[in-house]
Design a protein that fits this description.
This is 22554_t:CDS:1. The protein is mainly alpha-helical and 41 residues long. It has three helices and no strands. The protein has one domain (6-40). Helix 1 packs across helix 2 (19-32). It has helices at 2-13, 19-32, 34-40.
Length: 41
Amino acid sequence: DAIKRLSYELFHEHKQINENELKSQLKTKLEDNDFCNEQLQ
């Protein structure tokens, strides 16, 4: 699904990223993505 795919992409972009940074970046990407916002509502 979209969230898993975004998480996977973020993880590979930032191999050293920690969980809090991952959640923060994922949240930012989701907030910036109108399609995802519609899916989450």
